[in-house]
Amino acid sequence: MLCILQIIRSIKLNMTRKKLPTILEPEEAQKLLKQPNKRYPTGLRNKAIMSLMLHCGLRLAEVINLRPSSINLTKGKLRVVSGKGNKDRDLAIPDYLIDLLGSWRKKRPSGYFFFSTLEGKKLSDRYIQQMVGRYADKADIKNKKISPHVLRHSYATEFYKQTKDIETLRRILGHTDIGTTTIYITLANTDVEEGMKSFRGFLS
């Protein structure tokens, strides 16, 4: 009962916010992922980074700090170590990402981090932010400022649209308070869309 009341309060709060987070439409996400050239190591790496954000909802810091030992491609599992709030969580890697991540694993330089520079050094926040923005420009995604966090927002919104499972989404995203997750109920807007489509109006 308490959980339901928290969700209701959070939805009301989110609806009063002046500006909702930016998200990508599915076709925009597809266009974005087509931009990196996988024939080059950096293109392969960048496509894997953006794909992981868009299909697992990882935060920028979680992607940067991901270690080789945290990814088990045989079992299709990924462990986020010391995520926000210093909490670990386990996630399933979608089947369609296994080959992509496996290709990068074969080409990646040895080092402490799964995603790194070609010299094996840690990637910076700024590099990934600029990389995502650059590919968004190439994809001709207009009137939206695309950042790594937009990819996380896009994943969460689409997940809720398809499943309506807010509690599972909370656990996937690593939120402590479900109130933080309910913003995606507002972003998904499914009830409003379905209700308006079912309204027959006044035209004969």
In short:
The protein has 204 residues and is mainly alpha-helical.
Explain this structure to me?
This protein has 204 residues and is mostly helical. It is 56% helix and 5% strand. The chain contains 11 helices and 3 strands; from the N terminus they run ααααβββααααααα. It has helices spanning 2-16, 26-33, 41-56, 60-64, 95-107, 125-138, 148-163, 166-173, 178-181, 183-188, 190-198, and strands at residues 71-72, 77-80, 89-92. Strands 1-2-3 form a 3-stranded antiparallel sheet, with no helix packed on it. β2 (77-80) and β3 form a beta hairpin. The termini are far apart. The model has no long low-confidence stretch (mean pLDDT 87).
Q: Could you name the key traits of this structure?
A:
56% helix, three-stranded antiparallel β-sheet, mainly alpha, 204 residues, 11 helices
Number of strands: 3
Q: What is the succession of H and E elements?
A: HHHHEEEHHHHHHH
Compute the gyration radius: what is it? 18 Å
Summarize the biggest pleated sheet: 3 strands, antiparallel
Mean of pLDDT: 87
Which strand order spans the largest sheet, edge to edge or round the barrel?
Answer: 1-2-3
SS-derived structural category: mainly alpha
